[in-house]
From TrEMBL:
Organism: Marinomonas posidonica (strain CECT 7376 / NCIMB 14433 / IVIA-Po-181)
SUPFAM superfamilies assigned: Clavaminate synthase-like
Keywords: Dioxygenase, Iron, Metal-binding, Oxidoreductase
Protein name as annotated: Taurine dioxygenase
Domain TauD/TfdA-like: from-to ranges: 3-268
Pfam family, one: TauD
Any one GO biological process: sulfur compound metabolic process
InterPro entries on file: AtsK-like, TauD-like_sf, TauD/TfdA-like
Keyword flag Oxidoreductase: yes
Family statement drawn from the similarity comment of this UniProt entry: Belongs to the TfdA dioxygenase family.
GO molecular function: metal ion binding; taurine dioxygenase activity
EC number annotated for this UniProt entry: 1.14.11.17
GO CC annotation: cytoplasm
Length: 286
């Protein structure tokens, strides 16, 4: 096994392993690399659906079916991320998966079925590195603040549609997932790294601030996280796999390939309630 770091703080390419046949020793090495590098990349992995699920289960209990993303008929825990002719991708946002639910996931495993010849990369950001570059004064301010995470960004997206009454299905489903209050500064439960725990898609506001002040503060932090020095960019190939630590990263899908066919399968591992933060009902509605 060869592990090649791709940046000073985030991302590594792993060579010389078959993910469907990992020994316990190999998995132990991979898990430590996962914690260190935050996202691991692999090429030429011919995973069946069951092998994909089995690999994810080595990281923990799997998430149930996503509430509105498309999924495989044979197992609804496998999300399908697909672009087809006449159905280009929607607008992309920097995000950390599912921070709007009561317990955000620990990690996700994405397996490329087929991809465009050019374009369609994904970029990951190290939110621990972003935090460490904040000034002491900024860190002190943020330690006492909580972010409000909500489903609002999916309303009107490609995953939304209107019911017979003309109401947004996402807005209705959002009632099942009330806004979540989470500390803006989190500590990774395994590495003990401090990190900035916000993301552009689902962090709607900062508790206790006016709307204007909240949006200005978030915009400054989001802009910092968009700096390339905190990021790693991955070019997909058919059979490529990415495994990322959802607790300490954001990611962004680059939608520069029009409606070229592209299909990836995602399996997600449940998170730790200790890391989740506190749910709130704060009247935050669209």
């Amino acid at each position: 096994m060869k592990i090649v770091p791709l940046s000073p703080s985030i991302g590594a390419l792993v060579e010389g392993v078959v993910l469907s046949a990992l020994s316990e020793a190999e998995f132990g090495v991979l898990y430590q690399a996962f914690l260190q590098h935050k996202v691991l990349f692999f090429h030429d992995q011919a995973l069946t659906v069951n092998e994909h699920l089995a690999l994810a289960e080595r990281f923990g209990e799997l998430e149930a079916a996503h509430p509105f993303f498309p999924h495989l008929q044979e197992d609804n825990r496998v999300v399908v991320i697909e672009t087809a002719r006449g159905n280009p991708p929607g607008k992309s946002y920097w995000h950390t998966d599912m921070t709007w639910q009561s317990v955000p996931p620990t990690c996700s495993i994405l397996h490329a079925q087929y991809v465009p010849q050019q374009g369609g990369d994904t970029i990951w950001c190290d939110m621990a590195a972003v935090w460490s570059d904040l000034s002491s004064a900024e860190q002190a301010e943020l330690r006492s603040l909580n972010g409000i995470h909500a489903l609002h960004a999916f309303a009107g997206s490609r995953y939304d549609h209107q019911d017979e009454k003309g109401d947004s299905v996402i807005r209705q489903r959002a009632q099942e997932f009330p806004p979540q209050l989470r500390p803006i500064r989190q500590t990774h439960p395994e590495t003990q790294q401090e990190m900035l725990f916000i993301n552009e898609q689902f962090t709607r506001a900062i508790e206790g601030m006016t709307e204007q002040a909240s949006q200005q503060r978030l915009a400054t932090l989001f802009a910092k996280a968009r700096q390339e020095k905190y990021q790693v960019r991955f070019a997909w190939q058919q059979g490529s796999v990415a495994i990322w630590d959802n607790r300490v990263t954001q990611h962004f899908a680059v939608t520069d390939y029009g409606d070229e066919p592209r299909r990836l399968h995602r399996v997600t591992v449940k998170g730790d309630p200790v890391f989740a933060g506190i749910a709130v009902n704060n009247g935050c509605e669209d």
